[in-house]
Amino acid sequence: MRDSAGSFAVMDDVWRDSLRQREIPIRLRLPQHASTPVPLIVFSHGLGGSLASGSFWLDHWAAQGFATLNVQHPGSDLNIWSRRRDSGELNLRERLHAAMQPHELQQRTLDVKFVLDELHVRQASTPTLQPLDLNRIAMSGHSYGAVTTLALCGQHYPHLPAFAASSAPSTLFESRFKAALVFSPSARHTAQLDEQFGQITLPCFCLTGTHDQIRIAPDITPDNRQLPFRHMRGNNKAMLVLAGADHLFFNGRSRQDSAAECGMSAFKEVDNSVDAALIPVVQETTLGFWLDTIGHAQPMHNAIRWGFIGTHISPPHQLTLSV
């Protein structure tokens, strides 16, 4: 699978969940001329994101033989920004707050479950979907998408009344995923962390940076983003911490494109040289994780052989691994 970068087709569509009366935009990258069934990585965007989120990562994975599927979540997608200039900053803050409520998180998990179900239904009658190996599916996401990913992969919520009941986590959990990779994860509530993250047992790779923080959530510090990893049980996990990497970097798009999407002319303190140095590091380490987990005919449930990874990039951008 890794010998050379290959071509892939990109297909956009909107799938309708009639049960919830909800339109779900999707973007599928499908490697061309695959000689064996193709594993699939589902990707969930962050707050205010879109089908373009994660492109730096998903393009690379698809070129190396993995199908990828972006899921766009109505209610917490780019449409949050569309009324920024018309409705004012206060309305925008209200929209951001509403999009981060437990109900929206639940809707996000249901979006993903619906897409998985729909893939199984459509594959039988759609030739372009038949190369997909739906027994080898993994989940990934950035920021709010990382929260969505961990919810689907076993996180518990003792601090949220809506999810505190013993049956609630099982309604969010999705057993079809064989591995998870999260960019900019977080622990919004820092009580009972072992209970929150201790039930996540599938292979999980967490990526964050020393500048991974955003203004709308000042309580989520760069150190906070390491907490999910630290409170997962067992050794079937890994973490990558990149010196100099900020929150927007892990969105996997150019800063100019991200700025345009949310109606901003530019971001302050942009250092594209840091991004240029770190992008290939993330592409290669994440690809290695996928190869070790779903890149085999039989998914490997104890695949992470490298243990804890503390990777720090600093001038002149030398890579140091601590195993």
From TrEMBL:
<dbReference type="GO" id="GO:0016042">
    <property type="term" value="P:lipid catabolic process"/>
</dbReference>
<dbReference type="GO" id="GO:0003847">
    <property type="term" value="F:1-alkyl-2-acetylglycerophosphocholine esterase activity"/>
</dbReference>
<keyword id="KW-0443">Lipid metabolism</keyword>
<dbReference type="InterPro" id="IPR029058">
    <property type="entry name" value="AB_hydrolase_fold"/>
</dbReference>
<keyword id="KW-0378">Hydrolase</keyword>
<keyword id="KW-0442">Lipid degradation</keyword>
<protein>
    <submittedName>
        <fullName>Dienelactone hydrolase</fullName>
    </submittedName>
</protein>
